[in-house]
Design a protein that fits this description.
The complex is a heterodimer of chains A (about 260) and B (about 250). Helix content of chain A is about 20%, strand content about 30%. Chain A is of the alpha+beta class. Chain A has a 4-stranded antiparallel beta sheet with strand order 8-7-14-17, with no helix packed on it. The longest helix of chain A is centred in the last third of the chain and has 33 residues, at about 225-260. With about 250 residues, chain B is of the alpha+beta class. In chain B, the strands form 6 sheets. A 6-stranded antiparallel beta sheet of chain B has the order 13-14-6-5-12-15, with no helix packed on it. A 3-stranded antiparallel beta sheet of chain B has the order 9-10-11, with no helix packed on it. A two-stranded antiparallel ribbon of chain B has the order 1-2. In chain B, helix 1 runs antiparallel to helix 2 (about 210-250). Classes of the chains: A alpha+beta (about 260), B alpha+beta (about 250).
Chain lengths: ~260, ~250
């Protein structure tokens, strides 16, 4: 009986759906988190009776055929990269991107990582680093005795240094964009890696066409919408229950047959 | 006497198949663009040994075909730029395995080359060129206006292909939410570009499975199956008793 395995694929799909939803809800307060969505497609079809076959000598054909579907499969778990809300923190090293783009981060193994979580800090060496201590490319060194660090929307970092009147420019932040942001690989720790699906990183100055601008003193909150996640959770749970009912019903049908003798 | 068993068996086989179809509908209750399917049954007369007038007394049941209910699924708002839904008739077209395939699932995205693609990377076709649609996302957001035109910075950069298919009941389903036109159909049945399709941006067409109907279907299939089993049991019992009684003589 196909109905048993078909319903099992349905239960597996809804289980995955609940897993994705629970990860979204768990990350409701994660800075720069982008929510995900499980997308489903119907699985193979089995042709029990092929359409287009001759149904008589006069050349009439079977118009519709009998195609029995074998269930559901996961097409992708898609990351929805829409902008999260910006929340004001007042911390000068909290940077939020308003619009397209990612901060480039130097990973410990020398490769590049990309992140939207701009809650940065200063390393003991005076460099701008992420919460894990990874350098934010292209490397901003903040000299000792700096006060009043100002980062403008174009990513220019300036500081007033003790004993000097004019602010000193310390560096320029860069953003990276991708053709297909949803194709980035999530590495955890709010870091994404470039893949063949995302396309190569295209770096540029914040605020130039195609790039977002930088807001100092803000962090980008997660773009998870709790109401829509909860409704999706209810739908997933009910769908799971219905599939379980199909398994029970198929089982009863098989029991009816096996009790014949 | 054996006819009763055979007729019961033919009914049970179609009921099992109906259960498979119901299970597939329920498994796809959350699949975007999915259309409900149902089995069509027919009675087929048992061949008789000698010619007789009028309909045959004995009728088996058999599956005759498959019907898809192409009614519009609900449109769910997502707000995502490349979530598209056709409101009304018509299908999006993608190119896969060197042929055009049709789908109602409009959850598209851009690939690394900037092509608008479906989740398996198959390019979505333009209404006019029937080729892939290229979008440079860095130039600004894309807006899809009614009629399917893709607008970026006030310029039209393409038109989403929506195709109307006259003989949609005869389309063959591939899985992955895709349909193809079977090769035996002639040109008169070829898909026509819809002139003024209603394409909604930021919406996903949900499955049109109505779970209550499917569950009641499931229950009636199950109960019918059980009653046929009962009837088979009685037919067999009758057989047994006949043999016993005849054996006594």
């Amino acid at each position: 009986m196909r109905a048993l395995t078909t319903a099992a694929t349905g239960m597996q799909a809804q289980q995955l759906n609940v897993e994705v939803i629970s990860n979204n809800l768990a990350n409701m307060n994660t800075t720069g988190f982008k929510r995900q969505r499980a997308e489903f497609q119907d699985l193979l079809y089995q042709n029990v009776q092929q359409m287009g076959m001759d149904s008589s000598d006069a050349g009439t054909v079977v118009p519709t055929g009998v195609q029995v579907g074998l269930g559901v499969q996961t097409a992708s778990i898609y990351r929805i990269t829409e902008q999260g809300a910006l929340s004001n923190t007042g911390n000068p090293f909290d940077l939020a991107i308003s619009g397209h783009g990612y901060f480039r981060v130097q990973m410990p193994d020398g490769s590049d990582g990309y992140t939207r979580a701009g809650n940065f800090s200063i390393s003991p060496e005076g460099e701008l680093v992420t919460t894990d201590g990874y350098t934010v490319a292209p490397g901003i060194a903040i000299p000792q005795g700096s006060r009043e660090i100002a980062i403008n929307a174009q990513g220019q970092v300036q500081a007033l240094i003790d004993g000097q009147v004019d602010p000193q420019t310390l560096g320029q932040l860069e953003l990276a964009t991708f053709f297909n942001q949803a194709g980035l690989e999530a590495r955890g720790d709010n870091i994404f890696l470039e893949t063949a699906a995302s396309g190569a990183a295209n770096t540029g100055t914040p605020g130039s066409p195609g790039f977002g601008s930088i807001r100092q003193g803000f962090v980008e909150t997660s773009n998870v919408n709790s109401v829509s996640e909860i409704t999706a959770l209810i739908q997933a749970q009910r769908a799971y229950e219905m599939n379980a009912r199909v398994i029970t019903a198929s089982d009863e049908m098989m029991a009816a047959s096996s009790n014949l003798r | 006497m054996d006819n009763a068993m055979m007729i019961g068996l033919s009914r049970q086989m179609t009921l099992r198949r109906s259960m498979d179809v119901v299970a597939n509908n329920i498994a796809n209750a959350n699949t975007a663009g999915f259309k409900v399917e149902s089995l069509l049954l027919e009675n087929s007369a048992a061949p008789t040994a000698e010619h007789a007038d009028g309909p045959s007394d004995i009728q088996f049941v058999n599956t005759w075909g498959m019907a898809r209910d192409f009614r519009q699924g609900e449109l769910a708002f997502t707000g995502r730029e490349f979530d598209l839904a056709v409101d009304g008739n018509g299908f999006f077209a993608v190119e896969a395995n060197g042929e055009e395939q049709y789908t109602r699932d409009g959850r598209f995205r851009l690939d690394a080359a900037g092509q608008l693609v479906a989740s398996d990377g198959a390019p979505v076709l333009d209404a006019d060129t029937r080729g892939p649609i290229l979008i440079d996302a860095s130039l600004g957001n894309v807006e899809i206006i009614d009629g399917g035109a893709l607008m970026q910075n006030g310029q039209q950069i393409g038109r989403i292909g929506v195709f109307e298919i006259e003989s949609r009941a005869e389309m063959s389903k591939l899985g992955n939410g895709r349909y193809t036109i079977p090769p035996y159909l002639d040109l008169a049945d070829a898909p026509q570009t819809a002139l003024e399709p209603s394409v909604r941006q930021g919406f996903v067409e949900q499955s049109n499975v109505q779970s209550i109907l499917e569950l009641t279907d499931m229950m009636s299939v199950m109960r019918s199956y059980q009653s046929v089993s009962k009837f088979l049991e009685q037919a067999e019992d009758l057989n047994k008793r006949a043999i016993e009684r005849l054996g006594r003589i």
